[in-house]
Amino acid sequence: MTKLSATEVLKKYIPESSIAPCLKWINDYRLQLTIKKSRSTKLGDFRPAFNGKPAKITVNGDLNKYGFLITLVHEIAHGVCWIKYQHKVKPHGKEWKDIYTTMLALFIGNNTFPVELEQFIVAHINNPKASSCSDIHLLKALRAYDKNPVTFLEDLPLESKFELGSGRKFIKKEQKRKRFLCLEISSNRMYLVSPMAEVKPIE
């Protein structure tokens, strides 16, 4: 079996115009990229070099190409921040934000992202979150490019029944600040659920 080059691998996951800059960062900062299966708890992560092993970044392979690129840049920025500051700064502090937004801004205005998505990315750059999942507007805009678009809890009307990925079934009740109060059908207990939780409407 022929081993694919890093360029050929990345071509499957990110826009072509972003491949060269990302490869340069990965090589310059000696980062090892691993593409993972879908993980419900995170889109990607960074681990510093340890015991002679290179610094590692991982990204979920089920992301669409725009979400993959943003997550990849997010994790590369962690690598650069670690190399420069190590434990001296917070993981998502000002130093990381400056590095991340400077890198991501390179892909604005050059047709890397669709025009309708770019406005959300610009807003994200101006106020970056610890994760793109924390940026509700960006997350929703990105999900429009998924092969199988999902339904979010906030899309359902009140009193709708729905099922989470875990199989637990709820009824959507009132909104409490940033989350929705939901009644679990089996236990009759109330829980707060994120408006961006992926749900399956049920009868």
Automatic annotation (TrEMBL):
One of its GO terms (biological process) is response to stress. Residues 57-103 form the SprT-like domain. This is SprT domain-containing protein. It comes from Acidiluteibacter ferrifornacis.
